[in-house]
Design a protein that fits this description.
The protein is of the alpha+beta class and 409 residues long. Helix content is 41%, strand content 22%. The strands form two sheets. Strands 1, 2, 3, 4, 7, 8, 9 and 10 form an eight-stranded antiparallel sheet that branches. The chain starts with a helix and ends in a 12-residue tail after the last helix.
């Protein structure tokens, strides 16, 4: 009797434990689906403020150790090699206060500018870019090749671009002011100047793709999950910083690091570049639409939207958010004849025609001389080959073939 009672109690406790375990798993799965997948995302204002605080706290640690002018130029450390000629006069050193004084710009009292003319030029450039993209569909081909390149993961099938919208509005630049750059320079007179302006874009720039997630375990093509994703930029606002980085000379790296550098070490010059970046308090509002599944489809999953937004913000932060900058090398601004466009005057036209005719005559004469030399060389070679063939044939036949002009025996 006692044994049957113990067995009944043990079976009851096992059943209770099994049901409790199953209930716990169901509760965990339900909580995961509710709060992780279908949870409400935070408001855009809260997300923007949180990201701005995170960027400022992160950038404060890097700002002290990073600067685009942190390493002094080699030209200031090396001895200045004066030219042997005094024809080219060296102007006096231009410092930041002198430049501001000569341009009548007071950093503290000058009013911010509206940049209306700049907005018109930028709008014309963007409008032409959109027109060219719609004509030859080059942007569609380039993006398709880029997405299906070697960097594509193995668990994704071919990626197809389903939607591209370049927008209809244009960015508006305003409130431009010039400030000196605080890059840790010990000499305040040599500090660079930068232009800071507010930029605001309210548009709908969309990029949509579709692909399939392939599960290759435990065997290839175990499962296939269709995925469609569309990302739209709704608004972008922030502060843009633009400055010029002057050219600098650096020593050419030696082929043997351990060897001592030669006394006359050649210098490599980096060209003047345009540097731009955004302040950490920028705001980027996105609209992410997702569709997962083939039959039972899940639409607009909030967690996927958060993951996409975090990746895009991280991509921008790593490239063009202070203290990081993007540098664009500038070409030489010296006027050149080959870069001239437009109608020419009569004198230039006459000179150009005469010069082109002279060059054409010289090329024609050189071509004729080369052809004549080749023709003469070919005739001499043929004569020598015929004579050599006749000589060897006469020797083989034992005949007494005589070359033309030979002395009689």
């Amino acid at each position: 009797m006692a044994e049957s009672t113990q067995q009944a109690q043990s079976s009851l406790s096992f059943t209770e434990g099994f049901l409790l375990g199953q209930l716990s798993v169901v509760i965990l799965i339900g909580a995961f689906i509710k709060f992780f997948i279908f949870g409400d995302p935070p408001s855009p204002e809260t997300t923007a403020s949180t990201r701005a605080l995170a960027r400022q706290s992160r950038d404060n640690g890097h700002r002290s150790s990073f600067s685009i002018n942190s390493s002094p130029s080699v030209t200031s450390r090396l001895d200045v090699r004066h030219s042997s000629s005094n024809v080219l006069r060296h102007p006096p050193r231009l410092t930041t206060p002198i430049i501001l004084a000569k341009t009548y710009y007071n950093v503290d009292a000058h009013q911010p500018e509206s940049l209306d003319w700049f907005n018109v030029l930028i709008a014309q450039t963007i409008a032409q870019f959109r027109t060219d993209a719609h004509q030859d569909e080059a942007i569609l081909t380039s993006l398709t090749n880029l997405l299906n390149g070697p960097q594509k993961p193995d668990f994704l099938s071919s990626i197809k671009v389903t939607e591209i919208s370049l927008g209809e509005d244009f960015p508006i630049f305003s409130n431009c002011r010039v400030d000196p750059v605080d890059d840790g320079s010990t000499e305040p007179d040599t500090a660079r100047l930068q232009a800071r302006m507010d930029v605001d874009l309210s548009d709908l720039i969309t990029f949509g793709i579709e692909t399939k997630i392939i599960l290759n375990w435990p065997k290839p093509l175990t499962a296939v999950l269709p995925v469609a994703l569309a990302v739209s930029i709704v608004r972008f606002s922030g502060t843009l910083s633009i400055s010029f980085l002057p050219s600098a000379s650096h020593p050419t790296p030696s082929a043997h690091p351990g060897s001592s550098p030669p006394p006359q070490q050649p210098l490599s010059t980096t060209p003047t570049s345009l540097a731009f970046s955004f302040l950490p308090d920028y705001r980027l509002d996105l609209n992410v639409r997702s569709l997962v599944g083939s039959r039972s489809r899940l639409q607009d999953i909030p967690k996927i939207a958060q993951m996409v937004e975090n990746r895009l913000h991280a991509w921008i932060d790593e490239r063009c958010v202070e203290p990081r900058v993007q540098q664009i090398p500038l070409p030489s601004l010296w006027p050149r004849k080959k870069n001239t466009r437009g109608p020419l005057n009569e004198d230039d036209d006459g000179l150009g025609v005469k010069a082109s005719e002279a060059v054409r005559d010289i090329r024609e004469e050189a071509r004729k001389e080369v052809e004549e030399e080749r023709k003469k060389g070919r005739e001499n070679w043929e004569k020598e080959a015929v004579a050599e063939g006749l000589r060897w044939r006469s020797r083989a036949e034992g005949g007494g073939y005589e070359m033309p002009g030979a002395m009689p025996i």
